[in-house]
């Protein structure tokens, strides 16, 4: 119960005036101040202040409290006399008393349980001797605590826009009502002259709104903070059913399995109906609310489509689930399958290894054959190159072409310098001619038939590798090169003739005849016949530069050089 609420501003001002008056004037009311008013609440205790200060030669004889009614009449509440005691009147009997045990000194009155009808104006009447009677008036305002209520409305999903909850409150002064919610809606407030206030909250009900907050707040001056009336919106909707409990591994002989019909909806459904393939359940199966219990071991004929029908009063839902009972457990089947898979993988791996080994062997053999073939081809090519080199050397020595572009003067001089020197000197030292059977070898003598080619030309023999090396080493020496150069130039200038004019006629090969009887080009090399004339047009420095460059021939030329 809340204590009476006083008007603080008026109380403070009144007390200041009271104490100032008491300090300056002896005798009179100490409290309440003039035109004093206060507030109180129903069912609370209310104190009506009254205290009179007498003079030295004055005393209080009687104290009375009187209520002034709206029509102007007066109603006695309580009276106390110095000698006769106190008296309570009418409906106030047992509801009021003096605050102090000495009412002549402190005459404040207490209303133990304040009612709304206690609101009005009160008079504190003091009778003194010898100065007579004194009165002080005050007014009381009685406030009532708000009496509030909230009436929720049960809604269903799919309904039209309507009231979801109503909140009412009655108090003095009239309270103020508001809604605390996150719901999308609209509030409408109403009030009456009796102090009753009401408010209504309307919305479109949806399934997602079920259980959301919809609180009513009551605001009133008698309350330090608003009073909250908690409420949750109720929206009913049909259930959603689903069957659980089947893990896909039901086999014959399995025990203790069950199916569960999970369902939502509001309110929560309590009526469940189970069937199999649209017919009654087989023996050994029982229904316990939302559960379907298999009280025996599974059989092969337990396979089928199980149907669960759910009803919550708002709607009905039906769900079907296909159950398959196998002969053996899937774990055993999985082990068999895993074993087979491992065997297949092992076989495949073995086959791959064998195939790889075979491929490696075949590739190795192929590479060996290819290498052997390449070696044979390389040997054959080398042989052909050596043969062609020897033939090319013979053709260069016996060619009669006069095209200066076909012969290189420096190259001819190098050949003459390194290999023809001994041959030329032998020709001068041994003027013995053997006719067409003579050779240009290092020694003159009788040669066999195999020493001539098919044109009757002498065969050029290759020097040994050691002699070629010694010849190339000697060519690298500066003094040797200079000596050779002078000897060749001296010989060419002194001779000034071609091979066909200076050589003995027995050394000149016969000119072959063509099929028509004409004589073909001679096989005498033009390098000797044109050497004298060509050397005159070349300076000595340029000629020596060309021959010095050509002397840098690598040792590979020794394979194809001949005397």
Automatic annotation (TrEMBL):
Q: What is the similarity comment for this entry?
A: Belongs to the nectin family.
Q: Does the keyword Thylakoid apply?
A: no
Q: Where are the transmembrane segments?
A: 340-363
Q: Where in the cell is it found?
A: Membrane
Main location class: membrane
Q: Where is the composition biased (Acidic residues)?
A: 551-563
What is this protein identified as? Ig-like domain-containing protein
In residue numbers, the region (Disordered) covers 494-563
Q: Which PANTHER family match?
A: NECTIN-4, NECTIN-RELATED
GO cellular component labels: adherens junction; membrane
Q: List the Pfam families hit by this protein, alphabetically.
A: C2-set_2 (PF08205), Ig_3 (PF13927), V-set (PF07686)
Outline the extent of the Ig-like domain.
34-141, 226-324
How does the protein associate with the membrane? Single-pass membrane protein
UniProt keyword list:
Cell adhesion, Disulfide bond, Glycoprotein, Membrane, Repeat, Signal, Transmembrane, Transmembrane helix
Extract one GO BP annotation from the record. Answer: heterophilic cell-cell adhesion via plasma membrane cell adhesion molecules
